[in-house]
Amino acid sequence: MRIRPYLIAGTAALSFCTAASSQPAPSEIDAHIATAKAAAGLDFRGTFVNLCLPGGFPAGPGGRAGAPGGRGAGAAGRAAAAPGPRPAPDRATWYASPYKVFDNLYWLGSRQFSSWALRTSAGIIIIDTNFDYAIEPEIIQGMTQLGLNPRDVKYVILSHAHGDHDEGVALLQSRYGAHVIMGGPDWEATLKRDASYAGGVPKRGAGDISVGPEGYKLTLGDTTVNIVFTPGHTVGTLSYIFPVKDNGKTVMVAYSGGTLTGAFGSDAKRWDEYIDSQKRIAEAAKAAGASVIISNHSEYDNAYTKARLIAAKRDPGVENPFIVGPDGVQRYFTVMEECATASKLRNNAK
Ligand SMILES: [Zn+2]
Predict the structure, then answer these.
(1) pLDDT digits (tens, 9 = 90+) for 191-237
(2) In angstroms, what is the span from residue 300 Cα to ligand 1's centroid?
(3) What is the average pLDDT score of the chain?
(4) Which protein residues have their CB within 5 A of the ion that is ligand 1?
(5) How far is the CA of 64 from the centre of ligand 1 (A)?
(6) Which terminal Cβ of the chain has fewer Cβ within 10 Å, N or C?
(7) CA of 162 to the centre of ligand 1 (A)
(8) What angle do CA 235, 259, 133 make, to 5 degrees?
């Protein structure tokens, strides 16, 4: 009887020695995760954790456009809610002040979910529109607080048709006559929605734009937004490259329109589409010399933290915290591509 603990200890010691003396070659999955982790560094930890570590995040928002329950994760307790009127979550849990982050780019986000206003010489382009409860306090009042007139909104570009980014769009269209731009498949899913969808359903008429695989260049006044078709997170996800001014100097921005992959399962086509999209937007960002990477969730681009940093006094010569350099932008897309590659292998998608 007394010998048993001794044997267990001996077995444990033996296996430790084996592991230490002949390290198995890291698996292919681990290699992709290690590459992603190195690329993320300290800048993109949220993106790395959510995309690369299994079980770290609910799968909800990875669903196809218009899929039931395809709402944003962490949506203040409203994930997977049925369409239609719902009580708004307590404002104290999500409200954030608006901030001007470049000479002509304004962050109009709640703490987790971002909308942006890009001011041009011929009006304003809104990028993503948050939940229905956020449209008035964050976007309409946010613009007014920052000296922008909501009546100047000419276009709304939606990265993809999930509630955390599109519930505000119908109001901007009906009240201000803004034209709506969406990826083709996400437009189709949107038009099939029930009229009771939170925030309402936008109409597709003359002047609204449906973007296909060839992408689209939207020019408004002095500004051109290069819209890149990046299906994956939804089948019609869009990403963008556009210029902003930082103290008068032109800086190129890359906007990543869709992130999570949780619902892809063993659907290899879906994984490949997502991975190809990351390569395509990374190339477009490189060609444009993009040195800023932003998205529509603060946990990926730290927009809420960076916006507040800018509001604090910025000493002369100190770089805008949104500028991560061309290398930083490329590293961001490396995290997405490598995590997706690892997850595809992990899901045995063939
Ligand atoms: Zn989404």
Answers:
(1) 999 999 999 999 999 999 999 999 999 999 999 999 999 999 999 99
(2) 13
(3) 86
(4) 61, 162
(5) 9
(6) N
(7) 5
(8) 90
| Residue 43: inside a domain | yes
Domain assignment present for 261: yes
Tell me which of 89 and 19 has the higher pLDDT. 89
In a domain, 85, yes or no: no
User: Residue 124: inside a domain, yes or no?
Assistant: yes
What is the domain range of residue 135? 25-72+91-346
Residues whose CB falls within 8 Å of the CB of residue 83, separated by 6 or more in sequence, listed in order: 193, 194, 196, 197, 198
The total number of structural domains in the chain stands at: 1
The SS3 of residue 124 is: strand
CATH of residue 196: 3.60.15.10
**C-beta separation of 294 from 113 below 8 A:** no
Cα dist. 126→152, 206, 207 in Å? 10, 19, 15
- pTM, 2 dp: 0.85
- The tokens 């939170």 sit on which residue? 198
> DSSP readout, 211-278?
E-TT-EEEEETTEEEEEEE--SSSTT-EEEEEEEEETTEEEEEEE------TT-TT-HHHHHHHHHHH
